[in-house]
Design brief:
Blueprint (H helix, E strand, L loop, with lengths): L3 H25 L6 E5 L5 H11 L3 E4 L2 H11 L4 E4 L8 H4 L5 E5 L2 H14 L3 E7 L15 H7 L6 E8 L7 H21 L8 E3 L6 H6 L4 E4 L1 H4 L4
Parallel strand pairs: 1-2, 1-8, 2-3, 3-4, 4-5, 5-6, 6-7
Helix pairs in contact: 1-2
């Protein structure tokens, strides 16, 4: 059971994050919305439910399919779930139909499997293309120069819908460094969804985490994935 102290900690953190988001949006200018998605890896379901019921959290993202399945029954009626971590092709069947957005598609093999599983269920699954904007060997994602071609190659699939782009920037020492990576990602996003007109009314640009969501918003993010700044440091 959550203690009052823990509830207050989450409440204060959540309020601080919302304030930072609003300040960044004001600095950026315009009225484009920014969706807050709580990254909930290792966070107990009861804490996520508290944030949903008491604080108004509407979106949560799990990194691991196994953890998503463990929490699914407790969370499915409380908020909208995304899968934000790498998805192995063999585990696609476990995620399809349980999340509203799969944010880490970076291969035709994975896209094809998601499409096959979605078609079998009679649904269309929304996905994001993961871009490896820092070109890091330790991370998944498409290289920036192949994103447009990859998007075109998805047109043969009828049971998936590419809704935008996700990126994880390298760890940077300053907001200015983060902004360089996010600015590059934003340009890729614009090239695809504005110039090519892929018929998505509100495309998603998911970038920025607890250490970088403010510079991400300043460079055009429409969704930020914040975990430790809400729930504290986790394993």
């Amino acid at each position: 059971m959550l203690t009052e102290q823990r509830k207050q900690e989450i409440r204060d953190n959540y309020s601080r994050v919302l304030e930072n988001i609003e300040n960044a949006k004001a600095k950026r200018g315009g009225d484009a919305p920014v969706r807050l998605l709580a990254a909930t890896k290792t966070v107990p379901a009861e804490e996520i439910i508290f944030a949903a019921d008491e604080l108004g959290l509407k979106f949560a993202g799990e990194n691991r399919t196994s953890e998503l399945l463990e929490k699914y029954d407790a969370l499915k009626d409380k908020l909208t779930l995304h899968l934000i971590g790498s998805l192995q092709t063999r585990k696609a069947k476990e995620a399809v139909g349980k999340v509203s957005l799969i944010e880490s598609v970076d291969s035709i093999k994975l896209a094809s499997e998601i499409n096959k599983r979605s078609e079998a269920m009679g649904i269309v699954s929304d996905i994001l293309l993961e871009v490896n904007i820092g070109r890091e060997e330790s991370k998944g994602g498409l290289m920036p120069e192949v994103v447009s071609e990859f998007m075109d190659s998805l047109e043969e699939f009828r049971s998936i819908r590419p809704c935008g782009i996700m990126t994880m920037a390298p760890i940077c020492a300053s907001d200015d460094e983060y902004r360089k990576f996010f600015s590059e990602t934003y340009q890729i996003f614009i090239d695809i969804y504005i110039k090519k007109s892929h018929n998505i009314i509100e495309p998603v640009l998911s970038m920025g985490m607890s250490d970088s969501y403010v510079p991400a918003i300043l460079e055009g993010a429409t969704q930020v994935r914040v975990g430790s700044s809400i729930f504290g440091r986790r394993l």
